[in-house]
Structures are given as C-alpha cells and as structure tokens.
Known about the structure:
Blueprint: E1 2-10, E2 13-19, E3 24-29, H1 35-45, E4 61-69, H2 72-82, E5 91-99, E6 104-108, E7 111-113, H3 115-125, E8 126-129, H4 131-137, H5 143-151, H6 153-180, H7 183-203, H8 209-221, H9 223-239, H10 247-261, H11 266-295, H12 300-320, H13 324-342, H14 344-390, E9 397-404, E10 421-428, E11 436-437, H15 438-441, H16 444-462, E12 466-470, H17 478-491, E13 496-500, H18 504-507, E14 512-521, E15 524-531, H19 535-546, H20 552-571
Parallel strand pairs: 3-13, 3-14, 8-12, 12-13
Antiparallel strand pairs: 1-2, 1-4, 4-5, 5-6, 6-7, 9-10, 10-11, 14-15
Helix pairs in contact: 2-3, 4-16, 5-14, 6-14, 7-13, 8-12, 9-11, 10-11, 12-13, 14-16, 19-20
Amino acid sequence: MLRQLEIKNIAIIDKLSIELGHGLNVLTGETGAGKSIIIDSINAITGQRLSKDLIRTGEDKALVEAIFEVEKSHLSDLYECYGIEPEEDGVLVISREFTRSGKNTCRINGKISTVSMLKKFGERLIDVHGQHDNQSLLRSESHIDLLDSFAGEKMHKLKKEYSVHLDSYKKIKKRISDLEGNSGERERKIDLLKYQIDEIQSAGLKADEEQQLEKEKEILLNSEKIIKVFSNAYEVLGLGSKTGEAVLDRINEVVFELNNIKEFDKAFAEIARRLESIVYELEDIVSEVRAKRDDIEFDANALEQIEERLGVIYKLKKKYGNSIEEILNFMEDAQKQLDEITNNEEILEKLNGDLERENEILYNLAKEMNGERKKAAKLIEDKICHELDVLEMKNAKFRVKIEFDERENKDEISYKENGLDKVEFLISTNPGEPLKPLSKIASGGEMSRIMLAIKTILANVDEIPTLIFDEIDIGISGKAAQRVGERLSYISKNHQVISVTHLAQIACMADYNYYIEKVTEKEKTKTKVTRLEGDEIKKEIARIIGGENISEITIKHAEEMLEASRKYKGQL
C-alpha cells in the first residue's frame, strides 16, 4: 500500500506530506483546493507523462516521493530484472524530480532509474481511475484489453506467444513482397547491386591497407627530416667524423682497457663482459641506422601513386562505409541480396512455406485466444451484472459480444495485435430495452458505476494493492451514491482505496478522512492537508451536505450517515 506521499513545488503545493492508511482513504475539500494535484503527483511516481507547467510558479524543479509497504514476492521479478535491492521490512521508496528544462531524476530504493522503470513498478502498485477512464470505456477498442485482463495467466501466455509469431509472420511477408516486386524494379535492383559489387571488387581492397598507405605517405612527406636524423645518428654512432671519434670506437677502447685489468678483480671482468654485449648490440643498431638512411629517399612518383590509391578508398568510403571493413561488409551484403533476387524462385518457395506454417500457428493461437475470451466473457458478465445490481442498476443486463474473423481462405485473414477477435461490451439499463453499445445508452452516472463494477472484479485478478478513484461520483446521487460508497468500502477490505469525492455518502464510509484546503500565507497560496478526527469528520460531512452554513440539521444528518456507515462496515 501507499504509506506516505511527499510533494514539493507542484502547482499550488509548496511542501506537503500525507500519511495514508489501510482501508478506505477519502479526500474531500473545496473545488480548486488541490485534490487533483495530489492525484497528478501520484501519477508522476508511477511513470506517467508530466508537464513542466505543473512546477510551482517561481520554482525551477519539483519533487514527488512515495513510500510503499509491499510484499517482496509481489515485485521480486522486477527487483531482479533491474538489479534493485529490496528492503528487509518490505518498504519501497520511489522518487521523481523534474525540472523546467525537462530533466527527470528517478530513484527506486535509492537506485537511479528511468521513467519506464517507474511505469513498470507503478503498474504493479497502483491503479488510478479518473473521469477520462469513463471516456475510454466508450471506445470499443479498449474492451478487448479489459476482457483479457480478466482472462488470466493462460491468456497472457497465449498473447505473448501470438505476438512472437505475428512478428515473424510480418517479416516473412515483407521479404516475399520485396522479392516479388515488379520486373522493372527487380532488374534495376540487379543492375545496381552488380555495379556496387563490381566497383568494390575491382578496387582490390585489403583490410589494413588504408592505415599502411597513410603511414607510407607520412614517411615520404617527411623523408628529408628522417634522412637527416638517421644520417646524424650514423655519424655519431659509427663514423665519428663530426665528433672526432665514433661512440662505437670509444666503447671498444674502454672494453680493451678493462680486459687488461680484469685479472685483478672479477667485477672488472663482469663490467667488460657487459660492455662487450653493448658493443654487439650497438654494431647491429649502427648497421640498421645506415640501412634506413640509405633506403629512405623522396620519390614523387611513389607519393603520387599513394595519393591516387587513397583517393580510390576515400571515394568508396563516401558510398559504402566509414572504413574498408564496412565497405567489404557492404559488398558481402550486396552479394547476398543479389543471390536472393537472382535465385528468388527457390527462396520464395521456402518463404511461402514458412509463411504457411506461421499462418497455421497464428490461426490456431487466435482460435485458442477466442476460446479463452468466451470463457472469460461468461464469468465477467455474471460478475458485472451482480456488481451493477449492488450499485443500484438492478435491471441492467451486461453482455460481452465477441466476433471472430472466420474466413474460408486463411490467406485473406488480416491478423491484428490481439488476434482475430472483435470485442464490444453491450448493456441494457432498463427492462425491455435491447442490448446496445455503451456509447449508445449509458449516462455519465451509469458509466461511473459500470467502470467501478469492472474495476472491482479486475482488482482481485490483478492483485494491485492500491486503487485510486478520482471523482467517480460524477452524475450520481442519493441511493446510487450510497451504494458506490458501500462498494468502495467493500473493496477496501482487501485493497487500499484512495477516493477523491464531493459526496457525503462516500466520505462517511472512510476509514481515514482528509480535508484539502487552499490557504494564503504571506501573499502566497498553497495547499494544506489535514487528517480529520472525531467531530472534525462529522463537521466535514455536514459541510458537504449543506455547504459552508453548517446547521444542527446537517450535523444531525451527518451523525446519522456516519452511524449507518459504521453498521454497514461492521457487517463486512
């Protein structure tokens, strides 16, 4: 459950801390006091999209932090997937800081995370239902996902397997389409590929050729300097014409003199031996220096040939890749494409066979999914009708219409992301009326209750610990409002429920009541949240009933409603 929420610098909230409890938490207050901002803040830590306009005026950044109590097993796969250490006491801390520049800093148990990671965790922790969800219920396209949510683990596995095969099916179809193209396009493609392959092959490229050519070019361009260095080295080490005596000759003299005294001490002999080794090494060096000096010379023709060769490589790099390796890889891919096009009959035969197999698998999976949906539909129809009866829609009939795209010629089937089913929820709210799509018959108040019914039965399937209902009381009153309050109380026995409401019938069912108000301090407006106790709850219920002018009658009415709610909750 969501235990604590900290909000800083969002809209009219400067700094706010709310401790929430088990059961039904109800938020009430005047319009514009900041109730919806609290829901927006909860959406923020579940990875929903944010607008920088939410940041409080005069501030550069905002922060939302939430503390959850959750069973480790409920999130164990996500902890393992993202390398996040779970706390021993089951506490999970999620925070999100966002700035006017659009930068987001997200953390899960202190670990830097992404917004998409927040979304993955949020999907397991909180289900937020607002007024826009009623609108989504009017779109029949969303009905199939709601039905599948209820269908359970087998449907989830079938959809996952179906998705893999659908991806493969689409790729095979695209390859067939590419290979079958019209004859003119095919011939143009063959000509282009042949030209590209021939151009690269005729260049006779070698893997490390460019680096070697650049090295030779540098040597030629700097030949005068190199010759000068080696000539000087040879003079100093081997000839000695500039210095009077060569280094090699001087060392030989020292060795000769040491050999004349080596009989007096073994150390002298060892020094002589080591110097002799140096003489041998230096003789090799002098010989190599002389050879390098004699080998290097400026050759204008050689430089021109290197420049021409590098020009060829540069031209190919502009067309086919950033390196010789990439150019050769391009040629290899072009050759494969050419082989496919020129031998496409054999390849097409294989691809068509693969497509037929994928088609068969997809169709069978779609049939299986259809069967699971039909089973789920019977269950969901009965459960929703029961819930609607509880919610004072006693004559309502609810049906799930499932149409399967059955065709004799399977090649004509157009596979969709969810299979071959078209799902639509139908309802009749009054006796004698035929079943019609929700968009054709349901009022705002009815839509709220239908969505509450769906959320009620899906909550237990999804095992989401926290359910949030943001002003689901639109369009309802009287006995229907009382039943909605009772249903929220019923759901809160197994889930934490947070409800933003304007109805006394819902507020009186709360286990915890919070009053949201807008206050002005030092010419600045901010939101304040107070957890109500005792008589404060009674006064707030009376305010909702009668407005700001609280009378003895509204107080008495509030007492009666609270007493009735206590009796109801005692029976649950």
